[in-house]
Amino acid sequence: MPSAELVKIAVAALEEIKATDITVIDVKEKTSITDFMVIASGSSSRQVKSLVENVVEKVKEQGVRPIGSEGLDSGEWALLDLGDVVVHVMLPTARQFYDLERLWQGAEQSRAQHSAE
To answer: What are the coiled-coil residue ranges (predicted)?
Structure first.
């Protein structure tokens, strides 16, 4: 599956469970680890876990098997590795502390539009 399509699925899954401040960063020119990073915030440890679980469910429906995940137990920061796309879901305090957007500064970045449907 093309990585841009995988990003769309991940963002839609995050929006479905009301993630906030969803950011997509194109890192193809910066690293060989992945093509895109999707970063989102959850309002509680429970929501962080639910957000990642929803992304897993939605990508599996499309035949994509996640490579791995980390942090689901703590709920402060969870990472989901989909190969060409890495999804980070964090509590706002963790997101501010790690500031991944600044870390990858210069990579093409876009804010996902939160649809009011």
So the answer is: none
> Residue 108, Cβ neighbours under 10 Å: how many?
13
Verdict on whether the full-model pTM lies above 0.85? yes
**How far, CA to CA in Å, does 33 sit from each of 3, 26, 44?**
13, 12, 29
- Classify 3-111 by CATH class: alpha beta
Residue holding tokens 């990003």? 7
The two three-digit tokens of residue 22, written as one number: 């969803």
Q: Could you tell me how far CA 78 lies from the centroid of its own chain?
A: 9
d(CA 34, CA 81) in angstroms, rounded, equals 9
In sequence order, the 6+-apart residues with CB closer than 8 A to the CB of 92 are 21, 41, 43
* pLDDT the model gives residue 116: 37
Q: Which residue has the tokens 């990472």?
A: 79
Give the angle 37-42-43 at the CA atoms, nearest 5°: 160
79-91 per-position pLDDT tens digit: 999 999 999 999 9
